[in-house]
Write a structure and sequence with these properties.
about 475 residues, 6-stranded mixed sheet, Uridine Diphospho-n-acetylenolpyruvylglucosamine Reductase, domain 3, globular, Phenylalanyl-tRNA Synthetase, Chain B, domain 3, Rossmann fold
Length: about 475
């Protein structure tokens, strides 16, 4: 029954199996193990990704071994990534849970790109949805937060790769029942019982009280309410953003006439959607929305500033623009890019990974990834600002082109060019980050080892998002 429910759920999303390649995040827990089993039996071609953060020592390694065993038995291609999350946490200053999620999805997208897949599947289920909605409610979230986890969404704004949650309409009880009926093996994560984490408090304390007092259908009702909110957003504010907002040369322009035509509550939702879509690092609080909305009533030239954003009142528009980053070591360079260790650059996180095998598809279908010949690149890569006179050899040609011309052809806004980075190997440019790889390091029929350079945007509007 569970398999049929998942098939129907995916069909409603317009997703058919038919041998389609799909990247599946598998932790070793029952939810992801069941997801992998169902997708395989529905006729998908799974590519498994397991990320080991090593936070639980031997327990984390045991999870990895279980996933390796499952993939060996099912003959699923497996990519295992290890990440020193605590050192990244110190480097990037995010919450550990948020950073873990970011790293996981970045690895999922890299594997999807290298394997020619446009789908990533994760094992969120109905209880996860209810927990998310309740936690968002207690934070004072608006309609976007109250709509919960989307069934499908782009892995990042503008990406052709989507994240889908095939189990989102399934209860955890039905997932466990399926696993037992199939004789599947899985591991329990002891940290899921740790009440120091708020989600675990909601899961083990709040949800049982709700079910005990309002019946077993209460969780389903919460999820159904979220779906109703999502439908309203999908037919209301989001199309309004598509219709009225103008994006031009690094600026997002919101016409005042569109804002003033909406009821008070809806105008706030429109501002929230602009922040979410184009400036995700800016907090979306009622105070910030109120300050931006008030700006529309002030005279031309008035501004509102935040560390990540400046909004100006123009004659006919509110003009949103990313705040220029402060000077930092990453801006002045050069900085060594170590294999397997992420490096923060203006607007994103850059990394280099040596692949276990040559990708089946060498065109990653995104400017955020470049495949290079690892032996030609050599032992040390350096990340640096580009300089006047810098040239990069064009892939498939013996000629070179100035980096300044490359940026112009890629329509990188003038205001963003000072943030552009290049990856250098020796005296040559291996990659104009997010724009063009260097032809000196192209993968050929003689290539034995491939290095993948990738950049994950952390700021909306940065040039390499396009």
């Amino acid at each position: 029954m569970l398999k049929q429910n998942v098939a129907l759920f995916l069909k409603r999303l317009g997703i058919e199996a038919d041998g389609n390649r799909i990247v599946v995040g598998v932790s070793g827990g029952v939810d992801s193990v069941v997801l992998l089993d169902i997708l395989s039996h529905l006729g998908f071609d799974p590519r498994v990704v397991h990320v080991n953060f090593g936070l639980r020592g031997e327990e984390s390694d045991a999870d990895e071994r279980l996933v390796e065993q499952l993939c060996a038995e099912g003959q699923y291609p497996l990519t295992v990534k290890r990440a020193d999350l605590r050192s990244l946490f110190d480097l990037e200053g995010q919450s550990l849970q948020e950073l873990a999620r970011e790293v996981r999805y970045r690895e999922f997208e890299c594997v999807a790109s290298s394997s020619g897949s446009c789908l990533i599947a994760t094992a969120h289920h109905r209880q996860d949805q209810a927990e998310t909605i309740l936690m968002n409610m207690m934070r004072g979230a608006g309609p976007d937060g109250m709509s919960g986890i989307p069934a499908i969404r782009p892995v990042r704004p503008g990406s052709e790769t989507s994240v889908v949650r095939p189990l989102l309409d399934c209860s955890r009880e039905s997932i466990i029942e399926y696993a037992r009926s199939r004789g599947l093996s899985w591991r329990e994560d002891a940290s899921n019982e740790d009440l120091r984490y708020r989600r675990n408090l909601v899961r083990h304390k709040l949800l049982p009280v709700i079910e005990d007092n309002f019946g077993s259908g209460a969780i389903e009702a919460i999820v159904r309410s979220a779906a109703n909110v999502a439908n309203v957003l999908g037919t209301g504010i989001q199309p309004e953003v598509e219709r009225s907002v103008i994006v031009d040369r690094g600026q997002v322009r919101l016409p005042l006439v569109e804002l003033e035509a909406l009821p008070f509550g809806s105008s706030g939702l429109l501002i929230l959607e602009v922040l979410k879509r184009f400036f995700p690092t800016t907090p979306r609080t009622s105070d910030i929305v109120g300050a931006i909305r008030e700006l529309a009533t002030l005279q031309t030239g008035k501004t509102w500033r935040h560390p990540s954003l400046v909004v100006a009142r123009d004659r006919d528009h509110l003009v949103f623009q990313k705040t220029e980053p402060e000077q930092s070591a990453e801006r002045t360079g050069p900085v060594v890019l170590q294999v397997g260790r992420p490096l923060t650059i203006p607007g994103g996180i850059l990394r280099a990974d040596v692949l276990a095998e040559i990708p089946e598809h060498l065109d990653p279908n995104t400017r955020l990834i470049a495949f290079l010949d690892a032996d030609r690149v050599g032992a040390q890569l350096r990340v640096d600002v580009w300089r006047d006179g810098d040239k990069v050899r064009i892939l498939g040609s013996s000629s070179s082109k100035k980096v300044s011309d490359v940026l112009t052809e890629a329509r990188v806004p003038t205001t963003e060019r000072q943030n552009a980075r290049v990856v250098r190997s020796g005296g040559s440019i291996a990659w104009v980050v997010g724009v063009r790889p260097g032809g000196d390091f192209a993968v050929t029929s003689r290539t034995k080892n491939v290095i993948m350079l990738s950049v994950a945007p952390t700021t909306a509007g940065i040039y390499f998002r396009s």
